[in-house]
Amino acid sequence: xxxxxxxxxPPTRTELCLITLIRYKALPPKGDKFxxxxxxxxxxxxxxxxFDVPSDYYEHVRRFLWRHQLFMEVEKRKDKLCLAVxxxxxxxxxxxxxxxxxxxxxxxxxxxxxxxxxxWSKLFDLYLVVDRLVQGHECHKGHLWRLKNPDQVLETVDVxxxxxxxxxxxxxxxxxxxxGTSYQFDTANVAEGDWQDLADTATNYLGLTNPKxxxxxxxxxx
Length: 222
Fold this sequence. Notes:
alpha+beta, 4-stranded antiparallel sheet, globular
């Protein structure tokens, strides 16, 4: 289960710098595949060769990348925002965890180049299942879910049976800011003044303290 990969501690500053150096962009599908580009943020040049992913993953991947980039942008602005207690270290753990997930997808894409678009990533599929059913990737959330659902095994759930179209449509209506639809899934479209609202929305999603309960550091900046 992917929660077993969720880091217990935030990444080191060096690790975090290396992760946030790269941003990923998924281009709209062409036929049965779409292309993901990895871009070096410092020089705005490709960080590696682009890789192709089956089109069935497009909606999942662009939402995944939006969330990953959102966490990174909140971390980048940590000294300017009023962050709820516990948000920063947990966001940093998610940044590291999601980086491992996208790296896994990259490796699978490279391994499957000879298969065209006829492949699936078991790791990314499991990420999606956990995100949909557990609604969180921390180890304790996975443990609680298993206790409440002893007859279900997440690893055996068919990711294609979870009604994603309806789920995403409902989520977009309920909170288009968090899902990214308000910004076309691109953090470049977020006005600087919107980042506080996005940080508070992330706090709610992660089930942390009420966004109004800020850290001492944040209180001095509100």
